[in-house]
Design brief:
- The structure is a single chain.
- The protein is α+β, with helices and mostly antiparallel strands and about 500 residues long.
- The chain is about 40% helix and about 20% strand.
- It is built from 16 helices and 16 strands.
- The strands form four sheets. The chain has a seven-stranded antiparallel beta sheet with strand order 7-8-9-13-12-11-10, with helices on both faces. It has a four-stranded antiparallel beta sheet with strand order 4-5-6-14. It has a three-stranded mixed beta sheet with strand order 1-3-2.
- Helix 9 packs antiparallel against helix 10 (about 265-275).
- The longest helix has about 35 residues, at about 185-220.
- It is elongated and about 70 Å long.
């Protein structure tokens, strides 16, 4: 599973400071526009799904959840999210997993739901098990959720963290010795070999945890094929992101994180492990119970931390909005707001930095914030009552239209990238810059969160008709099929319950 990236504010982009910064931006834009798997490694850079409500107060947790490790982890992943029905349901699954595990009674696990749309789960030896809202949305039934939790517990029972740390220490010692005893070139060869060995070991751990998880959920009475179904959904989720944001399927590398095996490999292994237990159709899936437990759980980003609706990005807490040019797809991340339009290879980025108290905005733009700045292009402008400057910069084959807008205690920095700043492209970029505006307190309060809504399909319903009521930034039909485990040709069944996304 991948690491969560949650936007707490729009932070300063460190890579844009100092010499060569615009070259870095150019590379980033090029990678974003030309199938860069590195973006996937950071989890969701910005959440393509729309917002969620502000975090609800979480119920008191057992004593071991007051640990420093727990607090740091929860803070990193967006805080705790309170969904009592879902927590109770998942905890009841954990009781069954504990009884069926290879070490029954050794550790009593309890669930903490994390307030992030990123698909993730992990367990600690202390008995803390974490799942994200994004995972709850993607899982289709109890057996899929059980498979994920059993997989994470297997990492603990198999001592994978300790074993990997030991392997990494061995690699470091060997490489250090090689550097001293042998020549520098040989030392680098040994270091490279050891790094590959550690990565391979980690991927094997994932496969081992999958195998263990399948056996445990089967002994607990769940459908052992739940693991392969969830891994399939995970792969489809990555493919949908690739289709939306222009990354080729064959460029995605390992699924979500480079240390994980590719999804097809994991799916085939999970299916093989399940077949050793029995034919498809065995075990409990309890789709109805699972859907009832997650009904109403928030979907997508917390809207108070910024959200995307079509071409518009709104940040209710910082009280501003921006409209991207026609045809742009936007995503919101912990680093910035990113946008891309594949048709003509153009991109944008918006981030913020606390006002560094320069004498003027012109002085700030020329202070080394970016490299490649054309000083003669710097112009003062007014953006809806806010002082601002625009400029042009160049790095390699990329051209950039820059804007810095002063609003309250922040400077908002916008970078538009294109291979050629034609008149039409320039016009679009300037119009987008001029769309940046403050929103009123009333507008901020009118923010509507999105949630998972479970509905029953009627006699005349189709996947298309149900998807038409979905509130997602892009491709509602694809998201409906993904969330409900339906393939491209599969239709809904009257009377069955399905996940949708609504306000």
């Amino acid at each position: 599973m991948d690491r969560a990236c949650k936007l707490r504010r729009l932070p300063k982009l460190k890579s844009l400071t100092g010499k060569g910064a615009l070259a870095s931006v150019a590379l980033g834009c090029a990678l974003f526009l030309s199938s860069c798997a590195e973006l996937e490694k950071q989890g969701q850079l910005f959440a393509p799904a729309p917002p969620t409500p502000p975090t609800r107060p979480a119920a008191p947790k057992p004593e071991n959840r007051g640990s420093v490790q727990h607090k740091e982890l929860v803070a990193q992943f967006g805080g705790e999210y309170s969904a009592p029905a879902a927590e109770h349901y998942l905890d009841s699954i954990l009781v069954k997993l504990a009884q069926a595990s290879d070490t029954p009674g050794q550790t009593a696990y309890k669930v903490t739901i994390l307030n992030t749309p990123v698909v993730n789960a992990f367990a600690l030896p202390s008995g803390n098990l974490y799942v994200t809202r994004g995972l709850l949305a993607l899982a289709g039934d109890a057996s899929e959720a059980a498979a994920v939790m059993a997989h994470e517990i297997a990492h603990v029972t198999l001592r994978h963290s300790a074993l990997r740390a030991e392997r990494e220490r061995e690699a470091q010692i060997i490489s250090q010795a090689a550097s001293v005893i042998q020549n520098k070139q040989k030392g680098e060869e040994v270091r490279s070999t050891q790094r590959l060995s550690v990565a391979s070991f980690s991927r094997q751990q994932e496969l081992d945890a999958d195998d263990t998880g399948v056996r445990v959920i089967a002994r607990a009475g769940f459908d052992p094929y739940g693991a392969s179904r969830f891994l399939t959904a995970l792969g489809r989720s990555s493919e949908l992101r690739a289709a939306l944001y222009g990354k080729r399927k064959d460029s995605m590398g390992f699924d979500i994180m480079s240390t994980h095996p590719s999804t097809p490999e994991r799916v085939s292994r999970a299916v093989a492990a399940a077949r050793q237990i029995g034919a498809p159709g065995i075990g409990n899936r309890d789709r109805a119970g699972y859907l009832a437990a997650i009904n109403g759980v928030a979907f997508g980003d917390d809207p108070m931390e910024g959200y995307v609706r079509g071409r518009k990005f709104t940040h209710p807490r910082l009280r501003f909005s921006l409209v991207a040019p026609e045809g742009f797809l936007l995503e919101n991340s912990n680093e910035a707001v990113f946008g891309v339009r594949q048709a003509d290879n153009v991109a944008l980025r918006l981030d913020s930095v606390r006002n560094p108290q320069f004498e003027s905005l012109e002085a700030y733009v020329g202070s080394g914030w970016v490299d490649g700045l054309l000083q003669s292009s710097v112009r003062k402008i007014d953006v809806n009552g806010m002082p601002a400057v625009t400029a042009v910069a160049r790095a390699g084959e990329w051209n950039f239209r820059l804007a810095v807008i002063h609003n309250g205690e922040y400077l908002y920095r916008m970078i538009f990238a294109a291979k050629a700043l034609t008149d039409s492209v320039e016009k679009e970029f300037i119009e987008s810059i001029m769309s940046f505006r403050r929103i009123t307190p009333e507008e901020a309060r009118e923010t509507h969160a999105l949630k998972i809504s479970v509905i029953s399909a009627g006699l005349g319903d189709t996947a298309e008709s149900l998807a038409a009521h979905m509130t997602t930034p892009n491709r509602p039909l694809e998201y409906f099929r993904l969330l409900n485990g339906l393939d491209d040709s599969e239709q809904v069944t009257a009377g069955e319950r399905y996940k949708t996304v609504t306000e």
